[in-house]
Amino acid sequence: MKLIEHNHRFGIVSCAFEFWTMREALSRKLWMPEGPKTWRGRGCFVGVTRGKGDINDVRGELKLFCRNGWCLFYLRGSEKRLKEKLKERGLSFP
Predict the structure, then answer these.
(1) Helices (H), the chain
(2) What integer pLDDT is reported at residue 10 of this predicted model?
(3) 39: which strand partners?
(4) What are phi and psi of 43, to 5 degrees?
(5) Which of 82, 2, 16 is nearest to 49 (CA)?
(6) What φ, ψ does residue 66 adopt, rounded to 5°?
(7) ∠ CA 19-58-38, rounded to 5°
């Protein structure tokens, strides 16, 4: 998690790597987000927002993992597409 925090400070985002790493940390309760946030990489987004229930849906365009009141998401595409996909799932864009 320290590496991801360092990368975010300097604007380096590898969406897939970060999603899978944060997913593992969130599922093991090793990391709890401080608040909703979205990071943008080259043509991709990864972020965390408030959510309900337990979801582990990593198939399809929007990858989504929810635990302990937080939802972690990953999408390759535009911000408009991300907002649409989150809205379809009942989540708000952070």
Answers:
(1) 2-9, 15-27, 79-88
(2) 56
(3) 46
(4) 70, 20
(5) 82
(6) -120, 130
(7) 35
Cα–Cα distance measured from residue 37 to residue 33, given in angstroms and rounded to the nearest whole number: 9
Cα angle 70, 71, 72; round to 5: 120
Q: Report pLDDT digits (tens) over 31-60.
A: 888 899 998 888 899 999 999 889 999 998
Close Cβ partners of 51 (under 8 Å, ≥ 6 residues apart): 66, 69, 70, 71, 91
DSSP string, 40-71: EETTEEEEEEE--S-EEE-SSSEEEEEETTEE
CA angle 79, 85, 90 (to 5 degrees): 120
CA 44 vs. chain centroid, Å, equals: 11
d(CA 42, CA 36): 20
- Rounded to two decimals, the pTM is 0.84
CA-based nearest residue to 22, from 56, 79, 73: 73
